[in-house]
Amino acid sequence: MDKTPKQKVKEVFGKNADKYVTSDSHAKGDDLSLLVEWLQPENTWTVLDIATGGGHVTKTLAPHAGTVFSTDLTEEMLENTAKHLRDSFDNIHYVVADAEALPFLKETFDAAICRIAPHHFPNPERFIAEMSRVLKKGGRFVLIDNVAPADSELAQFMNTTEKLRDDSHSRCLSKEEWKMLLEENGMVERKSADRRKTFDYPSWVERTTESKEQIERVSRHLLNSNEKTADYFSIEVQDGKVQTFTIDEWMALYEKAD
């Protein structure tokens, strides 16, 4: 029997939980410091971290908020994150939760954040609807994720690359698709930034692949890209091997309309 998208997510992240705690692109992104600057959290706030992964958003916001609910679909991932953070903070609650069916009452949270995770969600429209439901009126939401270029050829190449490397990948939406979903759910844009993110290819591809053959498939896909694609994603090759490549990321601050 084929696995569902969410079963694939649990399997991939359960096996690679510790890699997401130590991953440079997850742990050291400058978006984490921007997160505090943009949100301006208060020490009375109840904050929701959706799909926390390695816990980097939770760790960043816990010193500034009253309470943080750190959630993830994958229990092994959440247990690993809790192990790393429990000795440092006493205001974090860890909850196994599906981003598309959040186990909280409406208008519970002052702020919600989802960082580098939505491309794994099979139904992003449900995720945005759920986030908006549990957010208080006037509450703030920050979305940070890899986004597909508006060009359909480049978007297909990016999503194919991600899927070849990680079977739990669903789809990177475009910035325009995210804006439409957010607006449809009563969210108003306050600030956003287009960002570029460069991956060290060898460590990136090894994080979720399961065999040398799988790594080779991803590498061939990148190496066989046409000039337009190689230029857009800044694919750097040395001695016939991919060294780095660069993708689009979008960071946006929204507020729930009163």
Automatic annotation (TrEMBL):
Against Pfam families, the record matches this protein to: Methyltransf_11
InterPro entries per the record? EF_Hand_1_Ca_BS (IPR018247), Methyltransf_11 (IPR013216), SAM-dependent_MTases_sf (IPR029063)
Q: Which PANTHER family does this UniProt record tie to the protein? A: 2-METHOXY-6-POLYPRENYL-1,4-BENZOQUINOL METHYLASE, MITOCHONDRIAL, METHYLTRANSFERASE
| Gene source species | Planomicrobium stackebrandtii
The name of this protein is Ubiquinone/menaquinone biosynthesis C-methylase UbiE
Q: Which residue numbers delimit the Methyltransferase type domain?
A: 48-143
The record's section on CDD domains has: AdoMet_MTases
Keywords for this protein: Ubiquinone
The source's domain of life comes to: Bacteria
